[in-house]
Amino acid sequence: MAKSKISSLSCIFSACILILAYSLSTATPELGPEIWLPHAFQIACWAFAWFLLVQRSKGFPRFSDPAVLLLLWSGMYFIYPSVVWIGGGYIPTGRETTNANVAFVFWLHGLFILGFIVGHLLIRKRTNWSVPKLDLQRLPSGWGIYLILLAPLLFESFVRLISGQGLLPKQTYGEKWYGMYENIRAAQSAGGVAYLVLQIKSKLYFFPILIQGIGAGLIIAHSVQQRKNYFRNTIFLLTGTVLMLLLGSGGRSSVMIILIIGLIFADLTAGPLRWRYLVFLFLLMAILFQSFRYYRAVNYLGFNSAFEIVKENIFNRPGGVANLDEFTGMLGKETFGIWIFQGKKKEGLLYLAQNILAPLPKQILPLSLQEKPTNQILSTELLGELALAGAGVAGAIIVDGYRLAGVPGIPILAAILGLIFAVAQNWLTKGVPRGAKGPMLLKIILIAGLYGCLYNLIRSSFGTIITMLFYWVCMPWILVNFILAKYPNNILTSHLPILDCPHYRVRSIVDSKNEV
Predict the structure, then answer these.
(1) Which of 115, 149, 199, 403 could form a disulfide with 414 if both were Cys (CB 3.0 to 4.6 A apart)?
(2) Kind of pairing, strands 437-440 and 495-497?
(3) CA-to-CA distance for 469 and 337, rounded, in angstroms?
(4) What is the distance between the alpha carbons of residues 414 and 398, in angstroms, rounded to a whole number?
(5) How far apart are CA 385 and CA 383, in angstroms?
(6) Is the peptide bond between 272 and the residue preceding it cis, with omega within 30 degrees of 0?
(7) pLDDT per residue over 163-176, tens digit each?
(8) What gap in Å lies between CA 220 and CA 201, rounded to an integer?
């Protein structure tokens, strides 16, 4: 065990040293020493958080751990853009930035990471750092669930093909988005049933994604537990991901979340999944994610022409794949957002109340609690009239914290988020009969869905997190338990047996003898 922890810590600290060394070697000449201390501070905070997680866990922390997921996203949204900026890479911003502005944001990154990990470890129970391998024999293979959710998209594409419109959609992502926004505004203006249906759909859109993600998770988990068909199932799921990107509406996040939820579910039930395979898979997903960013803007040209443009952008554009705009754009938004709220009165407890009440319809709230969330303010300031037509940008939790209480608001908000997800992990294993059974299947499903969207802890408002918890965890848990109250032995609310408990081993030996 000690060797595993030493090996894990060696990997973490080596990675941090390599990041700093790379930043130094690629830094633009005009950068002064004022940038290096805050850059080193945020990396040191990131390394320290990993160190604390390794100390609490058995060996290297598991992928499905919420703190691990937050640190992974921090690496992509905080550390990676800073390295790109130091090397002179393109960072989209709404105004001219100075070294001092960016250095200030680096300090805030470090404070956020420290606040989250301290808040998380404060109430996280030591017994909840790993979920044992579970017996999945009673659960379906996952193929049917995954394919049923894929079928409507394939049918829609088939209808488009036989109607002479071609297999792939010609409408760009921007056109689809503006069209959807027009429908939303029309429903809001009409009110009545149309607006009610719109409200319900906005709360339920995530559940098909969650169910398909669980289907993918069952495929991966059974493959891991049975130790076969790794390559076949990986190719199948990657192919399904590509098909959904090419044939779907153009949204990338919703497609990638399916695979991420699947990996989290598999790690919770049949893990731990091996990091060397996960890293390889994440690199493929990052390339796919960035490639489709270019493709969906020019898909009306046809696949061959669009693919040529994608290749041109990936291989000949400065930065290429190395400059993932989804993540580098975060630094620009944070710098711009901090500039917007500098000198303004901080919102304090009123801000917290506004976000805690976010799941409720705005119409029933007092005017003082109807302030715009950060993402709407950023969209309006950055995009102007385009924002009125439906265009928008994601938020930034760093800016949310600054709205709350200035610099102290960053670690305060991060600590609150850390506490929330410590409670979620404690709830997952609450009431588990130790040594014989694992968590309830329904809890694992809901937690996998919640953790699959943990990138929102960085790129969304605090109110979005509260809304996710309310509609994606609390309400389904209450509703399903109410419906199944008369069926106590159902698979959803039963504790899954542990695969390697003594009872299971004895039963397996007896079954194998009977088969002979």
Answers:
(1) 115
(2) antiparallel
(3) 26
(4) 9
(5) 6
(6) yes
(7) 888 888 877 776 67
(8) 29
**Cα distance between residue 376 and residue 350, in whole Å:** 18
Burial of 181 (0-12, 13-18, 19+ CB in 10 A): middle
Per-residue pLDDT for 503 more than 80?
A: no
The pLDDT, as a whole number, for residue 501 is: 45
The answer to whether 426 touches 125, Cβ cutoff 8 Å, is yes
What's the rounded Cα separation, in Å, for the pair 269 and 271?
Answer: 6
- Please give the Cα distance from 404 to 401 (Å, whole number): 5
What's the pLDDT band for 129 if we cut at 50, 70, 90? low
Confidence of residue 1 (pLDDT cuts 50, 70, 90): very low
How many CB atoms within 10 Å of residue 420?
17
Long-range contacts formed by 372-381: CB under 8 A, 24+ apart: 373/461, 373/463, 373/464, 374/337, 374/399, 374/400, 374/403, 374/461, 375/460, 375/461, 377/337, 377/340, 378/333, 378/336, 378/337, 378/340, 381/94, 381/336, 381/340
Please name the residue ranges forming H helices in 57-133. Answer: 66-74, 80-86, 99-123
